[in-house]
Records
---
Amino acid sequence: MNGHLLSIHDVSAQEIVRILDTAESFREVGTRVIKKVPALRGRTVVNLFYENSTRTRISFELAAKRLSADVINFSTSGSSVSKGESLKDTALTLQAMGADAIVIRHSSSGAPLTLTRWVKGSVLNAGDGTHEHPTQALLDLYTMRDRLGRLEGLRVAIVGDVLHSRVARSLSFALVKMGAEVMLVGPPTLIPADAPAWGVQVSHDIDAVLPGLDVCYMLRVQRERQRQQYVPSVREYARRFGLSRERAGMLPDDALVMHPGPMNRGVEIDSDVADLPRAVIEEQVTNGIAVRMSLLYLLLGGSGPRAAGGSAEEAGAVRLPEEVATGA
Amino acid sequence: MPATRLMDEAEVRRSITRIAHEIVERNKGAEGVVLVGIAARGDDLARRLSAEIGRIEGRTVPVGALDITFYRDDIGIRAEAPEVHETRIDFDINGWTVVLVDDVLFTGRTIRSALDALVDFGRPTTIQLAVLVDRGHRELPIRADFVGKNVPTRKDEDVRVALREVDGEDAVSVVERVMSEPGTKRVRA
Amino acid sequence: MPEPVLFRGARVVDPASGTDDVADVLVDGGAIAPSSGVDATVLDCDGLVLAPGLVDLHAHLRQPGREDKETVESGCRAAALGGFTAVCPMANTDPVADNAAVIHEVLELARAAGTCDVFPVGAITRGLGGEEMAELGEMVDAGVRLFSDDGRCVPSARVLRNALTYVRAFEGVVIAEHCEDASLGEGGQMHEGLTSSSLGLAGQPREAEEVVVARDLAVARLTGGRLHLCHLSSAGSVELVRRAKAEGLRVTAEVTPHHLVFSEEDLLTYDTNMKMNPPLRAGRDRGELRAALADGTIDAIATDHAPHAVEEKEAEFDQAPFGTIGLETALAAVLTHLVEPGELTLARAIEALSTAPARILGAGDHGGPIEPGRPANLVVFDPSADWVVEPPFASRSRNSAFLGRRLRGRVVHTMLRGELVVADGKAQR
């Protein structure tokens, strides 16, 4: 595997299979009494979270600790990051501390790639702006494969504010790469105009789409974006695209309901629906730890290109948009 | 690349039978014994041993599979992170006699990793080691309790164990190692 | 008075007189002299091109206010090294150049530097606020011929109408517009398209420029005023200008070297040196811009030289300011990427870099023709010299879109009113 994970385009379909297979073993570790293996003993993993996200940070923290790595948390509140220190200076500090891996969540698209210019360790993107959230996509793939036995040919709808969702992007690219069929569903103002170039289909009618799905993936309504008036009101959005109890009933019996969290119960997803057995939201969380352990292990377990101290461009991490459409 | 055949199917079968008898003899029966095979191939051997012991003693000996990849001492040294296999130990090992089973004993590092892994699962009364082939060149103070065949080898040779379950036939051969990239060969430490 | 200089055996490319010939050019007493037996320093120009000094209609020299990024002195030196003998610094300084006092200050700084003629651009509206006209007449008296709120667009059509109408009272005054609709362009980090979508960056559609171009041309029609459009980036804008010119409107347009060379795909690595406003657009926009430059729909090339501090550009992409420096690379970029591949003739390139901008500005001493009696504002360059764009630059800033790239074409001499301000590629002041 490449030295960094900045985007789903950094991994091939084969590598994704390897990541998921390795995660199986880590899930088994999670069932043991001693949920720890010494694989990354003595390594230092830094969580550099510029955006508040307790659940993702804890997931990465547990993943690193269960691999016996040392974990350092750098978050926006109460550290020098909030005093206006530049990303570059923070990076150089972490580099001086000998961080083997840096998990970064940032509100600026491209910040993880920028980070690779200043650090020698592996960089993992835990979500950058409206660009990508590759580890979320991978744990979602793991959950789908685990529950449905396959990824190829799965019919998956991603519903909601796709335009501003890094999760939707990574997941779409990942599913297309693995041979699944992706349908983006939402109001026209919230679906990127060139989404079809990603190899996906687009629909503005959720009711027409539900009966043919294997997975219904609901995105969080971002209320803070309402100021820009992409939809007339959150109420209208919920009425036209929310996964109500009635709508959940239109799904095939074996279909899954998924959500990256945190949920707005009663908005994009009814409270009842979130508690149905087919809603695997909690499994997504559990699987998240196993998948993140798998990623840390595969990135740090080899001496690989990262050891040469290369930036992401040198390691070949940059991909052109054309490759998106072909799912290469 | 010339391969020298050390053991054919019949010899493998006889070794397994003998080891099974030795395990039973040493432990005065099969009570309190569990077999844990080191993936890969060690677990297939463990299953065969369990079947054999079952024929001898009329008692089922539990079998588990242990992947030691996460306990290896060479993580981060090879180009790629080592390949991972399945671990399945569905029973409690506290207070039991665990017989670790592997196909080839070489430097002893795999067994060292297996001991560390086992200890995380619990506290066995005793740990014993059964191997199909002992090829010498120990780098750690590790020895096997039960050995199918002792085979003197050179360090630049490879011992290849083929098992029906995985490779379609039972055989043990010695091969001269081809020069290749570290990390791409399935070198058993 | 500088010593007489004879440029011997240069290929003289002078669009104003239609010349493209190997000749000797004698300079004496600050002007071109007829070749007679004057005792002059001889500069061998075999294999070199001699042209009228380049004129940049659009640069940001950051003084007063951000002397850390650039000063009039450093900017003029950069201009001279790039072959420019005249440069127009934009008004978005701090304080804004919306009154004669700031204009005088800039002129004085330029005179003290002495490396390049400076024609300061005055703001159209007070403080660039877009609401009240600045004291344009006072600034005209101080020497200003070009007014622009660049950095922004004049938001109100009525204000633009008033300005275009008002300056008709003055000889040769032009209103230059930065065409960008704030509501469509708001938050846009790059061109809106497949690349911005892949990178997860908010985009600015080409319509953000086109709607204002269309509006401004309509207002120009209404007022009969002289309008100049800055840094065009979109194929649609080009088409609008073409039609307007066919109709006979008094409109001129410029394009930057980086819009002629790069496209949105150059942003795939989130390189902040490629972050500009207007953004680098799609390949087809670049193609249309090149064709428009060749056929004269776009009159001139202007650098939009925009220096920024290193730490500002080293930040996260969406935090970094827009712009690239360009004075030292403009000529080489045009030669390497347009003239050499045959998309633009050398004569047209020189015309776009010198003759046309001089005419738009009304800078009679610049842009040629290279004839006896005319002021000696000249550039001599080696069209085959290879070099890599890397620091140190004469500019105080380093944010060049061409950083690390190889270009062909290098300035050897720059002469300002008979004085060699750059000799053998080195600034003399």
---
Amino acid sequence: MLTRVVLLVVHVAAAVLFIGPAAVAASTLPRYVPIEDAPSNQRDTQRNRSVALALHRFSRIYGLLALIVPIACLLLGLLWNKFGQAWLLAAMVLTAIAGALYALRIVPAQAAAVAAPVPRRRITALTGAAGVFNLLWLPVLVLMVLQPGGPH
Amino acid sequence: MRRPLYVALVILTVLEVGMLAVLLMNLAVVHDPTTARLIGPVHGVVYLVIAMIALFTPGLRWQLRALGLIPVLGGILAVRAGTTGRPMRNAPHPR
């Protein structure tokens, strides 16, 4: 019983404290990353490579720490014997999509953008990818709370 | 494909095949439900991660992406393509 409570707290706490900052860092980085094109609005003059670098580091570190969330989920699922339930499988697939999008698309694109100034459309793509990443967590959260099809 | 990602893919593929072997042997010989209950889901998670690497790695050829979705075979084919084949779009043919 105690193991399950500890694991559940670790799972939820890691989701809030690690996925949250990773999402915020990924969403705000595009606003600060240096741009290759000529500045065309007020925001462009505030672009700052040091800020972008710091946000990129936050994205990487919190993204790695966020791996605790699926690991705790796997252990909980095994302890609770819940892997036969569709809501959990659906949430895991969505999480895997979000994680892959983050680790294989967003973070590498960030690394390229902080290494050298990139054109505006690449920065816009980064903003869009971060938005999709953030939105993917909403259905996961609903599935986790309601557990449709699970016993109550 | 970047080197650390390729190493991860090799490790995951070995894990996936190994766990499938354990599951099949368990099914054939001892038929212990606890083993199946514990290893089955972990095997599924490893498959999911391999499939997502195949889907999301930038620059892969679409054929390899599609093959990567096949359980067990996908990982093996992706690892093989990384050593002998032409995993990336626009990559030159190997000699």
